[in-house]
Amino acid sequence: MKRYAVLVTIHIILITTFSITAYVLCEKQLWFSSLLAIVLLIATGIDLYLMQMKQTAMMHRLVDSIRFNDLTQTFQPPFRDRSMRELAEELSQVIKSFRSQLLDEEVKHQFYENLLNKVDTAVLVADRNGCVLWMNQAATTQLGQEPQLPAELLKVPIREAQVIGVHRNGVLQEMAISSTLFVAQGKEQLLINLKNIHSVLERNEMEAWQKLIRVLTHEIMNSITPIISLSDTLTERSASQSMNENEYRIMLQAMQTIHRRSKGLLDFVENYRRLTRIPRPVCTYVNGNELLSDLQKLFMEADIRFQLPEEELTLYIDRAQIEQIVINLIKNAREACIRISHPEITVNLAKDAFGSIVLTVRDNGEGILPEVMDKIFVPFFTTKTTGSGIGLSLCKQLMNLHGGTITACSEKGKGSCFTLTFPHHA
Questions:
Q1: Domain covering 284-422 assigned CATH 3.30.565.10 in the classification
Q2: Is 176 buried (19+), middle (13-18) or exposed (0-12) by CB count in 10 A?
Q3: How much is the pTM?
Q4: Which partner from 71, 102, 122, 357 sits 20 to 30 angstroms from 415, CA to CA?
Q5: How far apart are CA 360 and CA 381, in angstroms?
């Protein structure tokens, strides 16, 4: 740049000198000499102007190459100068480096786009008004090329996973949806992922029905089989003309057995009706300490301990229904510990690592066999000789109506733990 600065300085000195010379010569009326000085002045100014325009043209080429993504340009110095040559080389290197970075970004963009197009989960980006900005192949398959999100998707609260129904070509599709709000270039945008779980729900529903039908079939057959057998016996007995006292007593016992099994079958159907007519919960805000304190008054045994939370926890629940769940779990825990010399049952209310409120009922009883763990919430399934099999199923349905979950873990001979997880509420 030193030579360039020297050239500019020389041009300025020459322009100043020729201007003064032309003025002096004009004063002395030396017209030819003054004209010559003026011509030299104009020539020097033009040369300085051209020199500046060459450098400006090089800058314009740089700007245009960036503006129009023409990153194949190379730059030559506008005149022979080492500083200008170095500047031109640096500009060419900058363009080359910029081209390399853009190429890397494009490769990454294509990689991630291809990766997102390969997953079977629909991923899309939209603004707060529901205008779709980008979607992967799975989203296009499930929702089509619609520029606007379905209204059902916009109603889902942010950061809350839900299962919703979306009408597509006249067909209702169940989808699991979750969304995240982020800010890009100063604008709020939604990152939404969708999973079509219609087939999964149908399969799970079919499996649930099959389990229920197996249990129903087992219970009904246990009642119907002896009734049929006894009916045949009574029919044979009634065919004879005479009936002695012994035969009459046998017939009476058979009639009593039929009555008992019929009543048992009626009770079974009544339990089924009870299980299918659960009222919707009427939720209010309930203090967690008060809930456990009131439950503690119902179970004063020394082997049942209630651990009250250190902090004040508030639950949005139907108090009567949740108390029914906890009472049922404590009764089950007591039955599991009936043959334990030192039974321990603990009821605890706390927050988990994710900030959710959880209530646990833990015992050191006999535990649950691994082969029946997946059936304990199935209606009418029971391992008890006198159980109806609707207790845990009722608990699960009540927790589902509350928007929460109930889970169980157990180890044979070491006890069981049932966990109630309640959803967040403002």
A1: yes
A2: middle
A3: 0.45
A4: 357
A5: 22
